[in-house]
Amino acid sequence: MSRDSLGWGNVPITLALAGDQHAAGALNRHAWARLSRGADADRVLAALAARDGMGVVITGDRGVGKSLVGRSALAGLGPDFHTVQLRSPGSGTSTPYGCLAFTLARLPQSSLGSPTAILHGITSLIRNDAAGRQCVILLDNAGSLDEQSTGVLLNLLQTGTGRLVATAQRATDLPPDFYWLITSGQLAEVRLANMTEIETRGVLQGALGHTVSTALASQLHELVGGSPTLLQAVVSEQMERGNLVLAGSVWTLVDEVVLDGKTALEDIVKARYARETPLAREAIEVLSCARSMSLSRLAKMYDPGLIADMEDAGQILVDRTDRHFVTLGDRYLGDIVRNWLTVERRLELRDKVPGHQEHELAELSVEDLLAYAAWTHDCHAELAPAHALAAARAAVGLFDPKFALKCAGGIRPSDSEWPGGQQQKAAAYLQLGLPLQAMSSLDDIAEVQINLLAPEPFAELVAARADCMAWLEDQSGKVPELLRRSRLRLEEFELGDQHADADALARAGLCLDLCEFTYLSFIGEYEPMMERLSAAATSSDAIDPVHRFRTSIILMEALCMTGKELEARQLMRELAGRLGEWSNVPRIRENFAWRSFNVLLLSGQWRQSIDMLKDASGRAGHGLHSGSAATDLAVGLAYVYAGRGYLALDPLLASIAQLEVRTSLHALRQAYAAAAFAYAQMGNSVQATVYLDRARSADGPARFVVSSSAEFCMDMASRWLGDPDAKERLVHAAERHFRDGRYTLAGIWMLGATVNGTAKDFQFMEGIAGRRQGPLAELSRVVAVGSRKKDAATMLEAADLAAGLELDAMQARCAALAFSFARAAGLAGIAAAAQSMLESLSASVPALPIVPRNEGPLLTERERQIAALAGNGVSNKDIAQEVGISVRTVEGHLYQVFTKFGVSSRSDLLGLI
User: Nearest-CA neighbor of 871 among 913, 906, 912, 904?
Assistant: First the structure.
């Protein structure tokens, strides 16, 4: 299995179920075939039904599902057809009547005297078996058909005894006579292609019966290369192992996909493996152990002709980077083959690979280093401490915390690498959301070992400790004191050692500065560090250019938070243009992408923020599910901020399913809150309340941007549901953000709080907008002015600004107010324009954030019908019977009517309709 889908050091383990398991048990093969290849099977049936045709040949690459389509088509023929299933052996054309061996065995001795007698005997036998029914022959692997079988089958077709469904990789692989039938149009060809990622997700959802996240579908699609047969085998195995589970209403993985080959996959692999030459098998074994290997190293072991042939056959893939890394073409193959190999065989293969000797390891790339480390662990051998530390650091950089812990776990306290190893353990535990374990790892470093550290390693250790402390409620406030004492320690280095390296001391000081900036952004204190942060980001000192770039990334977010949104986006574009220069710095690309996501989202550019996630850690990582939960959550959050709850639910529920099985409480609270807000936007008060309660009970440490977002979504959901205290909470939060210099957040919070604001609220919001930049700030200002003055034209302008930012709920709010103000002022033209805008938003904003006044609310015809009946005292049950819908649907419509009118009882409806 390749590192992209598995992580570096995984070995098969038994996992317990988490959540409810799929009740259906093993997946039904015929149902799966229909879902994945139903349309192709219909094409085959249509070709069979052609009046002048002799049948159809199904072609496509290995593993594409040709046999699956053929058998699915035969299963759909019904009782009026007699079917015969044959398979040509893969050993070539040397076996006469190879595919007809079983039929040949049934012939009487008198029919075996000559080829002609055999031909007539088989034809008569098949006709007798058909008993007057139409006969269809399925022939698998037709490309290796022998001459005698070809003659018999041609006779069956030309005499009308039966029609043919054959499978082959290419039409040109068929015997010449069959190929001539294709070119002459007497045999049709159905060409199959691997499923796309979208098709894979559709098949998974159809087969499993519940939502499948985009991330899970993408991972499985990449794993099997779009092959439906392999997809079924992998899904079945993961379900049997308890790794694929149903969490709520979403299927998710408990851990990485690791294949042990105990299901149908092993049969598939054995069949392919048996056809390879001994040298090709060894190359497959080497790549299964190494996961990936540079082409230059592989070429030192095997003849270039063999490598070229394997690449042409799709057995290996060579990437187009400078290193030309080679991986197995079948991504599931590595795990299964590796499980076949004994420890002795793994060691034997490792010793054959050039560059794996210890004196050569310093020259290895990160990829080769991790491959060597994983291979060593597979052999139950120990890595040298220096190599274990290097591999752990690389694994942390590639977001594979479990393998990092495995590598660092081999370092002993007596080794000089112990402090560095514990630091990598701490980083890995933080990636897993386990700050207590991270701090414990650092506490295991003895004081005497810390005292022996040089300035730079000492500063890095302090930064690691500060990162852990920030996550612990009882330790977070102690970080400033830790940094103060650490700076004093650096001064002691300088005073106590006249030969101290000035550049090293300077870099250590910069490390502590970066640590402080990171900590202050973690707790949301941006204003106090702006002057120092700006100076660090614009310094021309070349001692540590990476430090300047890292501080610029933090400055980008700080500028956005403090109201300078346009400056933040300009800096973001500048940094994006220079990002390629620092591609070798671990995690810097992901750090940039996630902070850029925050900048774009809080600036109102939600669509661009989703695009930015392509470069975030969720897509570039190698570890547990490649961070897909964080990516799904961020996408859902962007949709919620845009007022598109109906689009937010799928990614949000997918992220919740993944976070729940991993107990990542700090992100789970944000996911619950965003889901509550999304349901509230859709008018589903029941589910909104459910997720609101979950968010309130899922408290835990989190970064400021996460915790503040969770609080905002919770209060907005509460306000949408009619909580009278929600507005005050939003206003108080906005005032706190304003006092702390976070003007962008203050503006967003006030925008949410002032759906029914006072003149004082709007004056405050207008004042905040004056301290901000960009289109979202301008929208806030126009909304504040128009709402305070009750100016219809201004509110219609605000609605147009919101439409430009694609903020649907905000656009609906502004249009509703424009309509109300216009009706009060007798401005029919503006009222008509506002009403037209509201009608265009009715599908995407089912529950209006504010109801237009001075005229009855905009009700659908069904809502008006149900409201009239309810206002006259008709019960929900009687309304359901009269209208012809369910009671639950009646309840849903009444909820919308109550929301639009702002009433709470049926009696209040009387006279309003």
Answer: 906
Per DSSP (E only), the strands in 103-261 are 134-140, 163-168, 187-191, 211-212, 244-247, 250-253
Backbone angles phi, psi at 184, to 5 degrees: -90, -5
Which tokens sit at 580?
Answer: 């390629």
Distance, in Å, from the CA atom of 227 to the CA atom of 214, rounded to the nearest integer, reads 17
The full set of domain ranges for the chain reads 50-191, 260-380, 382-452, 455-506, 524-606, 622-723, 861-909
Secondary structure string (H, E, C) spanning 526-564: CHHHHHHHHHHHHCCCCCCHHHHHHHHHHHHHHHHHCCC
The dihedral sign for the CA sequence 261, 262, 263, 264: positive
pLDDT tens column, 824-875: 887 878 888 888 888 888 777 777 777 666 555 566 778 878 888 887 778 8
Beta-carbon neighbour count of residue 52 at 10 Å? 6
Q: Which CATH architecture has domain 50-191?
A: 3-Layer(aba) Sandwich (3.40)
The token pair at 251 is 């299927």
DSSP string, 805-870: TT-HHHHHHHHHHHHHHHHHHT-HHHHHHHHHHHHHTTTT-SS-SS---SS-----HHHHHHHHHH
Contact 102, 88 (CB under 8 A): no
User: How many angstroms separate the CA atoms of 97 and 280, rounded?
Assistant: 30
Output the CA–CA distances (angstroms, integers) from residue 851 to 300, 469, 755, 856, in the order listed. Answer: 74, 48, 10, 9
* pLDDT above 90 for 512: yes
Q: Residue 7 pLDDT > 50, yes or no?
A: no
- Residue 194 CA to residue 221 CA, distance in Å, equals 10
| Residue carrying the six token digits 């007698």 | 117
DSSP tag of 136: E
d(CA 482, CA 452): 19
Q: What are φ and ψ of residue 24, in 5° steps?
A: -75, -15
The beta-strand segments (E) located in 222-273 are 244-247, 250-253
180: number of Cβ within 10 Å: 12
**Domain 260-380 sits in CATH 1.20.81:** no
CB of 641 within 8 A of CB of 751? no
Structure tokens that stand for 878 in this block:
């009687």
755, two tokens: 């759906």
Token code pair at residue 520: 């202050």
Using an 8 Å Cβ cutoff, are 268 and 228 in contact?
no
Contact 753, 768 (CB under 8 A): no
The predicted-structure confidence for 349-369, as pLDDT tens digits, reads as follows: 887 887 666 656 666 778 778
Asked whether 210 and 220 are in contact (CB, 8 A), the reply is no
For 337-366, give the DSSP string.
HHHHS-HHHHHHHHHHSTT-SGGGGGG--H
Report the alpha-carbon distance of residue 134 to residue 207 in Å, rounded: 32
DSSP secondary-structure letter at 138?
E
In this structure, whether the domain defined by 622-723 belongs to CATH 1.25.40 is answered with yes
Measured from the Cβ of residue 284, the count of other Cβ atoms closer than 10 Å reads 23
The class of domain 861-909 in CATH terms is: mainly alpha
Nearest to 593 by CA among 570, 572, 623: 572
Share of the chain above pLDDT 90, in %: 34
Give the tens place of pLDDT for each residue, 424-474. 999 999 988 889 999 999 999 999 999 888 899 999 999 999 999 999 989
Q: Answer yes or no: same fold for 622-723 and 861-909.
A: no
